[in-house]
Amino acid sequence: MPVPTPEPAPDVHPAWLPPEAFRAVGSRHTLVAGDGKLVDTVVGEVERACAGHGGTVRRATDEPGARPADLVLALIPALPEADRRPGDAPDATAASGADLAAVHAAHVDLAAVRAAHVDLAGALGAEGFALARHGQVTVVLADAPAGLLYGLFEVVRLGDTAFGPECPVRVHRPALSRRMLDHWDNVDEHPVMGQVERGYAGGSIFWRDGRPRRDRARVRAYARLLAACGVNAVAVNNVNVHATEARLLTDRLDDVAEIADDLRPYGIRVHLSVTFAAPVVLAGLATADPLDEAVRTWWAETTRRVYARIPDFGGYVVKADSEGQPGPFSYGRDHADGANLLAEALAPYGGVVHWRAFVYNHRQDWRDRSTDRARAAFDHFAPLDGRFRDNVFVQVKHGPMDFQVREPVSPVIAAMPGTRLAVEFQVTQEYTGQQRHVCYLAPWWSEVLRYRPWGEGGRSVADVAADGGDLVAVSNVGDDRFWTGHPLAQANLYAFGRLAWDPALAPEAVLDEWIDLTFDPARSADPEMLRRTLHEVMDDSWRTYERYTAPLGVGFMVRPGHHYGPDVDGYEYTPWGTYHFADRDGVGVDRTRATGTGFTGQYPPPWSQVYESLDRCPDELLLFFHHVPYDHVLHSGSTVIQHIYDTHFAGLAEVIEMSRRWESLAGLVDPAVHARVSERLAEQLRCAQEWCDQINAYFHRKSGVPDVRGRPLH
Ligand code: GCU
C-alpha cells in the first residue's frame, strides 16, 4: 500500500518540497520494484507527484501497463537475475512473473541493468543508491528501501537533468550513517526558555502546554522535508530535561511512540533526551549512582519497556553535570561510568547514547584568570578516551565554547581516537542572529568539516566524524508557518542535512539546490536574477554577521540571558566564564602555553604551534588566542583597532545592500515570503546598526584611538 504523503494546513510553507519541485518526476512514467515500508513511501511520493503533473507510477508487482517507463526505482534484489531474460518463465527463487513482464514495459532490460551493476549489490548499504542511465531510462538502484527514498529525492533535486544525457551517473552513499537533529523542545512551556529553548520559530511542532501537539500531518511533513535533505534521526525533547519531560521515558512513552510512528515512514528514528537522575525522580530510588546495582537494573528494565513500545527507538541523549543538570559527579563517578550505564541498557537493542561533552564550570570566579571555559571539555573528556562502550557517542560542540560566530575547532575532536564522536552544530541561530538576521551557516560548517586537526595531509573533522561517529545539530524548526521564522533560515536546515550526507559539498552548490527546489526560478520572470540575488544576499551572510558583531574570534559580547544584540561587557564579570579582557591598552584572551591558560596545548601540532604564535595565528581567531595591543598589526596589514572600526562599518553597509537587493525581488518570489524576509531585514538593519555603534564606541572609548577615516564613533 502506498503511504499517502502528508498534507499539513494549507498556509504552512512547503519549504524545499513545493509541488513544482516534483514536476520532472510527476510528468513521467515510473516503475518501482521492491517491497518494504519505505518503498511504499516512495510510491506514495511518486503517486502524488503524478497526480499533480500527469505522469504514472506502477509497481513491478502490479498488472503491467502499456507505458514504457522513464524512471525505474528498484531494489537490486527485486530485479530479475541476468540468466533469465525477459519472457523466460519465472522460477520459484526468482523475481515474480509480473517483474519480468514489467521489463518489457520499462523499455529497459532490467536483467541487464542488474548484470551491469552486479558489483553494486550489497555495496550500497542501508541508505546508498546508484543513479544510472540505461538507454532512455533513468534508473535508481538500492540495496535497501531507504536508498530508494534518498534516490528519489536526488532525482527530484536534479529535475529534468535526471532524464537527459547530462544526468550525473554515480553512486551515492552517506558519509555519516547517523545525521541527527536535536530538538530543544520542552513539553511544558518553560517560564524562562519558553516552549522551545533557543527557539526562534514559534512553538514546538511536537509539544504544547504540557501535552503532545498532535498536528500529525505537520510532523509527517517535517519528516518528509528531513528525508529530502538526508536527516535520519531526531531527538524530540530538550537536553535540559525538566520534570514533565523526564516522564517521556516512562509513563509518557506513548507520546514519543506517536512521534516515532509519524517519522518512521521517512526513515527517521526517534531519540529521547533523558535525565541522569531518572531513577531518583521517576522511581524514587535513593541514588542514581551509575555503579549501583539497583540503578543498573532500573535502566535495563526501563529501556526494555521503551523497546517493547518502540522497537526501532534510536537511543538516549544526555546532558550531565552541565549547567545544573544532574550527572555522575554527584556520586564521585566520571562521565565514562555514567555513559556506560546507559549504553549497557541500550546495547541489547542496538540503541546508542549521545553523551554531551558540554561540561564546564558555570559558577566560576571572573577574578580567577587561570580558569578557562574553552579548556573544559578536553580536560573532562580526553582522559577518558578508550573507556566508553562502543555504543556511546561523545557529542562535542564543534568549537570549545558555545556556537559563536567564530571559534577554533574543538580540540576534543582530535583527542579521542578510541571513542566514537558526534560533532554538534547549531542550526538554530542562538548566537548568529536568532532567525531575525540572514545568516547562511553552511560556509562556516563547511570550514569546520574541512579543518584538519593534524595539519595538511591529516584527516579532517568530517573524516573523524565519519569514522564511526556522526553529525548532530540543534534544530531551528518550530510551528511557524515558514518552519524557521525567517524563511531564508530554511536553507540552514537543508544545508545541515546535505553536508551530513556529503561533507565535501560546496556551500554555494547546496544553496543552488535549495534555491532551485524552493523558488522554482526556472518558472519565474527572471530566473538568472532570482538565483543571483539570492546568492548575493545569502552566500556571504555569515561573514557579514561576523563583521558587525564580536571581532576576531573573541566571541560573545551578547546580552546575557536571551543572547540577542550587543552587550560588550555582558559576560565580562559573570560566573559563566566568557571574557574579552579589554582595557585601555588591548583586548583578547591569552590562551597560550607561554603566558596564558595553556589552551593552545590541547591541540596536536601543527595547530598547537600555529595558535601559540602571535605571528602565525590566523587573523580571524587572533583575539580568541591572544591578548594584543590595539595597534597590533594583523596579517591583513590593518591594526586591530582599525580592523574593528572597518569591519563594523563594512558589515553594516552590507546589510543595507542586502536589504536593497532583497527589495528588488518583489514580484519574483512568493509575496508572503517576500514580506516576511523584508520585515526581518528591517530588524537586522536596526540591530546591525546597534552592534556597529556599540562595538565601535566601546573600543574607541577604551583605546582613545581615532578612526583613520574619521567616521562618527559616538
Ligand atoms: C547554550 C544555550 C543553552 C543550552 C546549552 C547546551 O549554553 O544557551 O540554552 O542549554 O547551550 O548546549 O546545553
Automatic annotation (TrEMBL):
Note whether Lipoprotein occurs among the keywords. no
All copies of the Glycosyl hydrolase family 67 C-terminal domain together span: 484-711
> Is Hydrolase found in the keyword set?
yes
* SUPFAM superfamilies listed in its UniProt record: (Trans)glycosidases, beta-N-acetylhexosaminidase-like domain
Q: What InterPro entries does the record point to? A: A-glucoronidase_C_sf, GH, Glyco_hydro_67_aGlcAse, Glyco_hydro_67_C, Glyco_hydro_67_cat, Hex-like_dom2
Q: Which residues form a coiled coil?
A: none
Pfam families named among the record's database cross-references: Glyco_hydro_67C, Glyco_hydro_67M
Q: Which Gene3D superfamilies match?
A: Alpha-glucuronidase, C-terminal domain (3.90.1330.10), Glycosidases (3.20.20.80)
> What keywords are assigned to this protein?
Carbohydrate metabolism, Glycosidase, Hydrolase, Polysaccharide degradation, Xylan degradation
Enumerate the spans annotated as Glycosyl hydrolase family 67 catalytic domain. 171-483
Please report which protein family the annotation says this sequence is part of: Belongs to the glycosyl hydrolase 67 family.
Supply the name of the protein. Xylan alpha-(1->2)-glucuronosidase
Supply the source organism for this entry: Micromonospora qiuiae
